[in-house]
Design brief:
Layout lengths: L2 H16 L2 H8 L3 H15 L4 E3 L4 E3 L1 H22 L10 E7 L1 H8 L3 H7 L3 E7 L13 E5 L7 E5 L4 E7 L1 H7 L13 E4 L10 E5 L4 E4 L3 E5 L2 H9 L4 E5 H9 L4 E2 L4 E5 L2 E6 L6 H11 L17
Parallel strand pairs: 3-4, 3-5, 8-11, 8-12
Antiparallel strand pairs: 1-2, 5-15, 6-15, 7-12, 7-13, 7-14, 9-10, 9-14
Helix pairs in contact: 1-2, 1-3, 1-4, 2-3
Length: about 300
């Protein structure tokens, strides 16, 4: 197979698996029009249509699906063979496609980006930040970072942070204006800043566990509903209401006085973050490099309810 044919086959795989010329072109670093021409020349050379194009989507034809089925294992083997050359280099070379939530990006990845670049300058990181849980295999990601409860059991998972807990917080201005609730059931009288995940129309209840183990579930009164933890935190800082967020995510804001930790003695456990990837015999060197950097990160201190200026 010539170099041009190999490039065309890889281009076909990218378009077929991503279902979009634009997304595939962005990943390959070329224009969508150039990619379309590559696929057209490949189809002309093979004498069969591989992709069915509409104004809204791209899907493999029956012939394309058969080529995809046979080509993907071969291409994976080719990539694995190339990655094996990393054992003979001083530093790993290659790309890692990573998906993670916004909170994981801020708490886990961002503090380590400079170190990753310094230690492994030839590792290229491609990051997709999205709070909804996705199929990393189907979307062709190499790895993801999520809380342990969201990682499928068949994945290889490495702990990156210690377990956390949820914390009800509000700005001092809000507390001065509306007062501070002393028990979870008092939240009904307050403005809630709620997070709705994915395509769900339901606003999740807030679950609190007392120091004595008692469980109290509250349906918050939403003044604002968002799908992004960063926006929820910013809304709380601006005095828009009470948010219920990971303690590590609001720790600095509580310590600096921008937020107040509410409901002393009431919280809820939250699993830590894990790096995960599909179980495989050969883990690519760039992914091993990323794991090495992320797993050496020291645990973060966490603010406890009722102790706004302290950390554990």
């Amino acid at each position: 197979m010539s170099r041009d044919e190999l490039s065309a086959m890889r281009a076909f795989l990218e378009v077929a698996e991503r279902g979009s010329f634009a997304r595939a072109a962005a990943h390959l670093g070329i224009t969508a029009s150039a990619l379309s021409q590559t696929i057209q020349r490949l189809e002309e050379r093979l004498g069969v249509r591989l992709l069915q194009r509409t104004t809204r989507s791209v899907a493999a034809t029956a012939a394309g699906q058969e080529l995809l089925r046979r080509l993907r294992p071969a291409m994976d083997g080719f990539d694995e063979a190339l990655d094996a050359l990393n054992d003979f280099r001083d530093t790993p070379v290659g790309a890692v496609r990573l998906t993670l939530s916004r909170v994981a990006s801020e708490l886990v990845l961002e503090p380590r980006l400079a170190e990753l670049r310094e230690r492994y300058p030839r590792v290229r990181l491609e990051v997709a930040v999205e709070d909804r849980v996705i199929d990393i295999v189907g979307r062709r990601f190499d790895a993801g970072i999520r809380r342990r409860s969201l990682v499928e059991s068949e994945m290889v998972a490495h702990r990156l942070t210690k377990d956390d807990h949820l914390l009800a917080v509000a700005a001092p201005s809000y507390v001065a204006r509306r007062g501070a609730p002393e028990r979870p059931e008092e939240l009904h009288a307050h403005d809630g800043i709620c997070i709705r995940r994915g395509k769900s129309e339901t606003i999740p209840a807030w679950r609190f566990v007392g120091a004595d183990g008692a469980v109290h579930v509250v349906e918050p009164s939403p003044a604002l509903v968002v799908d992004d933890a960063h926006l929820a935190r910013q809304a709380a800082v601006s005095g828009g209401g009470i948010a219920y967020l990971a303690a590590a995510y609001v720790e600095r804001f509580v310590r600096e006085g921008a937020l107040v930790a509410l409901l002393p003695g009431w919280s809820a456990p939250l699993a830590g973050f894990f790096l995960f990837y599909p179980s495989r015999h050969h883990v690519p060197a760039p992914l091993r490099a990323l794991a090495t950097v992320l797993r050496t990160r020291p645990p973060k201190s966490l603010v406890r309810p009722g102790a706004p200026g302290s950390s554990s």
